[in-house]
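User: My advisor, Dr. K., asked me to get a structural model of this assembly before our group meeting. I'm new to this, so sorry if the format is off. These are the inputs:
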Amino acid sequence: MGVHPPSEWTTKANRQPYELQKAGRLLVERYGFVSRYYPAEKLIRDRDEREARSYLIESGWGMLYQSLPDGDRQIVELPIAGDLVGHFTDRSLRQETFASVTDLRVWEGPATQLSAALAHNSPSADFLHRAIARQRAMLGERMADIGRRGAALRTTHFLLELGVRLECAGVGKRHDYNCPLTQNMLADALGLTAIHLNRTLRETRETGIFQFRRGHVSFMDYAAAIAFAGFDPSYIAG
Amino acid sequence: MGVHPPSEWTTKANRQPYELQKAGRLLVERYGFVSRYYPAEKLIRDRDEREARSYLIESGWGMLYQSLPDGDRQIVELPIAGDLVGHFTDRSLRQETFASVTDLRVWEGPATQLSAALAHNSPSADFLHRAIARQRAMLGERMADIGRRGAALRTTHFLLELGVRLECAGVGKRHDYNCPLTQNMLADALGLTAIHLNRTLRETRETGIFQFRRGHVSFMDYAAAIAFAGFDPSYIAG
DNA sequence: CGGGCGGTTGAGAAGATTCAAAGATGGTGG
DNA sequence: CCACCATCTTTGAATCTTCTCAACCGCCCG
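Assistant: The format is fine. Below is the predicted structure of the whole assembly, which you can bring to the meeting.
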């Protein structure tokens, strides 16, 4: 069985970083967006905020989460380079908090301006459309993960997806990448307890599928992981 | 404790049905959409479809679900009147199937045309923007439901949300409405087994919170339900 | 009147959580 | 450089939630 992904996945030229820069420049030059930096673990936009503000991630990791009354939280999205946050009115994030995980560079501006940018027929608008479509697809996948897949399968599926996203963004290989999430965060994203996630990670490590260590994910047997999780990346990169 | 919601919730004039018709007409007259009817329980758009097609629901219930290899499925969305399906490229639904639950009336057309419609500054474009924002917010809520709320709380929260959506759409009262979902479907939407959902429903019925009978949902004590679920409808109707 | 589907119930098994505690790790100030 | 602290990770044991399997009821429809 294959230990590494087919070479065309990693060797083909990756245009996304270039397109991202172009889209960012467009937003700044024509739509009143500004480039901005947030240090790690800072709150960027709290729940109940009324302003409709949009963000395009240039680099780093962010997170969108919902805090529940009992102190639990559910991480809804983990946006990285090329992802959009908060398009279309403030309402979409009325219950969610947007914070940085690592140092974060974004272009941000009024949501209405993003809509205007989306309307124009251009490669950059296409790029932004794809970001929105990808986001919706990932939310569907996450729901299937949490609702219907057991802990090991769910975790594997999520980390496979993350790998493809990072590779597309040009910041890692899909079978081996850096990941700043603590087990606690990952558990909150997957709807598991940190303790149970920890046991699950030991299991996948011992069965030789992948390793998750502070700061790094590597798939020992990528083909086995894909088969196990029934993963099909077409919704991200297709 | 209050048995009915405050009267302003049900008596204030509801503009959504009117706005919906106006938006539908706009899509038909200016953006090449067509009005279309699908009978109940018909597949509308299968997974892996490459065409980027958008739908605005005029009336009836639809569902978007993901089928998993082991035969399980996760219902991701249950669009009703005023909701949008499949905006922005085919990719967002690459893994999901769109089917009707009840008889369904939609306006449908190419996704690119929907983007064009969204761009124009008009009440109808606003209406569509709100639909997209609401959708994203609901996906976040559903994730919190499935990932972090126990069965009873999750079910209550979901049915409260559904009530508000239906009331906004002008097809029911938020504390008492018709619901065509079988327990099987509801379970698939909530990430539960039908059997466990059934027990959960008995529990909420016996504790006097709400009743779910084939075809109908009614909250016996709406205030208690809201308090129990920690429900805040601002993300839908805010 | 017989099937099929939806709903209901019980018992036992599996999966996930809680509580408690201890081993790593990395950064800080002395 | 080291002691100390906070955070992250790991482990064990008991408990609770949810699932699986198996069966039965009721209703609608052919």
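One thing worth pointing out at the meeting: The CA atoms of residues 79 and 238 of chain B lie 19 Å apart.

User: Perfect, thanks a lot.
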